[in-house]
Design goal:
about 180 residues; alpha+beta; 5-stranded mixed β-sheet; 4-stranded antiparallel β-sheet
Length: about 180
């Protein structure tokens, strides 16, 4: 059975860490994941697309047996930008329960880049997500900015909480599929 582990790496250096690790250790067979989100940023009337981490400072590793990971852990630890395995380097634990469910939502269901969700607002002005990365995360939404087309969601990972913005596009309720 596959297990997923979290590695804490330098924030905004996640992609660099993965490229460096693969170049230095091509023999290590584990897939590494770095879920990202695409969001439009408007400055002085100019809109540009930006990419940002969903879990800043974290890279996720898919491994089969725990012994496989332990035999390669020093390859990770020697790579520039690596800080630690979670829970700690002495107590490497796979993701479980809500942590695993949340990470798999972005790794397996959404893919490497979370795009724009499609949503509408019901008669009580509550957001209803029809498709996209926000689907299934409605209970984690803490703020909605209709003008910017963003929903702020609260994510919990290993007893740490942080919030991120994900983009949404408003559709009319008649456009539901």
């Amino acid at each position: 059975m596959l297990k997923y582990y979290a590695l804490q790496v330098k924030t905004r250096g996640e992609d660099k860490f993965i490229r460096l690790f693969k170049a230095l250790h091509p023999e290590v067979p584990f897939p590494l994941y770095f879920p990202q989100r695409r969001i439009d940023i408007r400055r002085r009337g100019v809109v540009r697309q930006s990419m940002a981490a969903i879990f800043p400072g974290y890279v996720f590793l898919e491994a089969g047996e725990e012994g496989d990971l332990l035999s390669h852990q020093w390859a990770f630890r020697r790579t520039d930008g690596f800080f630690r395995f979670l829970k700690s380097n002495q107590n490497i634990l796979p993701l479980a329960d809500q942590d695993l469910e949340l990470v798999l939502h972005f790794i397996k269901k959404i893919g490497p880049v979370a795009g724009v969700s499609k949503a509408y607002f019901n008669e009580k002005s509550r957001i209803v997500v029809v498709e996209g990365p926000l689907m299934g995360l409605e209970g984690k939404i803490i703020k909605v900015d209709k003008r910017k087309g963003r929903a702020k969601i609260k994510l919990d990972l290993y007893e740490d909480s942080f919030s991120i913005d994900l983009a949404f596009e408003v559709i009319s309720p008649l456009d539901r599929r």
